[in-house]
Write a structure and sequence with these properties.
Elements: H1 3-33, H2 38-59, H3 70-90
Length: 93
Amino acid sequence: MKTKEVALSIILNAFLGYLWLLFIDHIVRVANSMENTFIVGGLIILIGTALFWEIVNRVTPFNKYKITHPVKLAGFISFGLVVVVDLFVLNLI
């Protein structure tokens, strides 16, 4: 395990976390502009998140690692931190 791999995983997954947040924000805005589409918006978010997960797992160079590998764990943690910071810190400002 190299430091370069860990840094690349953190940066790549943090960027993908931000892209996922942009996708969710866009879908919520589209669903809010329609009337009575809470179920449709939720369904689109679930399908989009599942497709996003598949793309992330295929695009990243770390797809050969197991889920418990430290490089992959660092990436998951950075993805989660970006989402948590955006939802709980930046939305409060």
